Amino acid sequence: MTCISVFIVNYNGSSFIKNCLDSLLASEITFDLDIIVIDNCSTDDSLDVLRTYKDRVRVLKNYYNSGFAKANNICADYAKGDYYFLLNNDTITQPNTIQLMYDYMVQFSDIGALVPMLLNEDGSIQCPGSFFGQWMFKSSNPVNVSFVSGAALLIKKSVYNDIDGLDENLFFYNEDVDLSKVLRKKKLRLVYYPLAKLTHFGGLSTFFRSEKSLLEGYRGGFYVCYKHYSSFIYGLYRFFVLFDIIPRLLIHFIFSFFIPIHRSYVSVYKDVLRINWRNDIFMTHPPIKVELL
């Protein structure tokens, strides 16, 4: 029987993970579902929550926060499935979400990745990607797209292995940008399948992002540009990022005298400038230390 392995990377997601798992376990499917949650060294009570699912879900305890890409690759080492469903922990699937995605994907050999319609908590449609491509995610029919979000993504095991999984030089953010480019270079289609739907709580924008995610977002942007474009384009990108960073740094610096939270952002933008100057865009990971609970 066909098996789909679900990879969920969790970091301090105790407020989301229960609803995510409950919705998955309520899936109406005709195949086996192999759910793997890797906890990336959470400091909240995530592991306590996850232990209550041990009889239905495989829980991996990661002893350091390895980031999104590497954590998914670790899940792949444990996976039993013929297909991998990469899923954010702040999602709620509908009973037929995975079945609909599988039924469509199995019909075509040239699909690299398939993504469902992402909904905000209020039911409105999330349109990921760049401004110029977002209109495609408002389609009511399956459509080829240039970018697929890593919030919920179905990919064949054979394809995942062929591209050596997600690029571990990306810690958090930009993994889906890189994956989209890699799959397109392989002449594989990226398909948006709006008949399958799920709710993604993380899709709503906020003014303040955590310092780590902000820093890694910039680092990942540098790395993706370095990997996929010419040295000339990469040099231009680094140059234009300066015009993005310096005004932000100055604004946060001014406000830091009045609002303490801005001080941490001053530090982050200084770090981004250092990354840009030193071209410090590659990740190093300590040896894997993972325990199956």
Task: Detail the topology: elements first, then pairings.
Elements: E1 3-10, H1 14-25, E2 32-40, H2 46-51, E3 58-62, H3 67-78, E4 83-88, E5 91-93, H4 97-105, E6 111-119, E7 143-144, E8 152-156, H5 157-162, H6 175-185, E9 189-200, H7 211-228, H8 231-255, H9 261-278, E10 290-292
Parallel strand pairs: 1-2, 1-4, 2-3, 6-9
Antiparallel strand pairs: 3-10, 4-8, 5-9, 7-9
Give a quick summary of the entry.
This protein has 293 residues and is of the alpha/beta class.
CATH architecture label of the largest domain: Alpha-Beta Complex
The Rg value, from CA coordinates, equals 19 Å
The unreliable regions are 203-208
Q: What is the rounded distance between the termini?
A: 26 Å
Report strand order across the widest sheet: 8-4-1-2-3-10
CATH fold category name of the largest domain = Spore Coat Polysaccharide Biosynthesis Protein SpsA, Chain A
The quaternary organization reads as single chain
Q: How helix-rich are the residues, as a percent range? A: 25-40%
| Main sheet overview | 6 strands, mixed
Would you identify the CATH H-level superfamily of the largest domain?
Spore Coat Polysaccharide Biosynthesis Protein SpsA, Chain A
CATH class of the largest domain equals Alpha Beta
State the order of secondary-structure elements, H for helix, E for strand: EHEHEHEEHEEEHHEHHHE
